[in-house]
Amino acid sequence: MKRILITGATSGMGLSATELFLEKGWKVLMTARNHQTGVGILQDLKEKGFEHVFFFASDVSKQQDVKALHDYAMKVMNGVDSIINNAGVWTGGMLHETDEDDWDRLFSVDVKSIFLTSKYFVSYMIENGGGTIVNTASVSGLHGDYNMAAYNAAKGAVVNLVKAMALDYGKYNIRVNNVCPSACATPMFLANPKEVIEMFNQANPLKRICTPEEVAKAMYFLASDESGSCNGINLEISGGLNVHTGQPVQ
């Protein structure tokens, strides 16, 4: 039975991934910051009949929390075969409008957490003969957006980090890839006004935004043996949002 750690696992894409990997027969360790929420979801999953699921509360942007998470994973699962680095936050605004605290928080959660989680678990993967790491990047790391300077910068870091990690760890049979969703129908995004949601729907060639379940399927593909030769890729899940040249309809 393969073992996976999923960060940001209690909502949106992370929760969908948790459910999918459990359905596929994997052993899953969920982590997120809110202990009460995590324990409640854990109980719900166990009531659905999933036995091989665990939860550990941690802030994966903090080294001491990731070390404790590592120790817990070794205790309850005796290691991990795969990591989904899904923890993330968002902030908007032009560069000169962005507070330093918001900038630092965004980079801590969206970038530093990937560094820390990978750092603490990759040694086990090397010793164990391989593994997979899947990070949640974004189409906003591949291209620019209006009023999203900090987010573009952070996700751009993740987009390039995956290439360096793929080069360094491929020789150890560790594949590292990113999923790059566009706006996704997570509870956080669906809290926007209806007109905002519809604006994003209409901007998409499919006339709808992607779903957490669709992103989870891409995560599973990249984490599993089904993507055996995929390494260092940024897999867009955007409905074709980025294929347009920008020229008007003729």
UniProtKB/TrEMBL annotation:
Keyword Protease carried by entry: no
Pfam families: adh_short_C2
Annotated keywords: Oxidoreductase
PROSITE patterns cross-referenced by the UniProt entry: ADH_SHORT
Record GO terms (molecular function): oxidoreductase activity
SUPFAM superfamilies per UniProt: NAD(P)-binding Rossmann-fold domains
Family designation: Belongs to the short-chain dehydrogenases/reductases (SDR) family.
Name of this chain's protein: Meso-butanediol dehydrogenase/(S,S)-butanediol dehydrogenase/diacetyl reductase
Organism: Sediminitomix flava
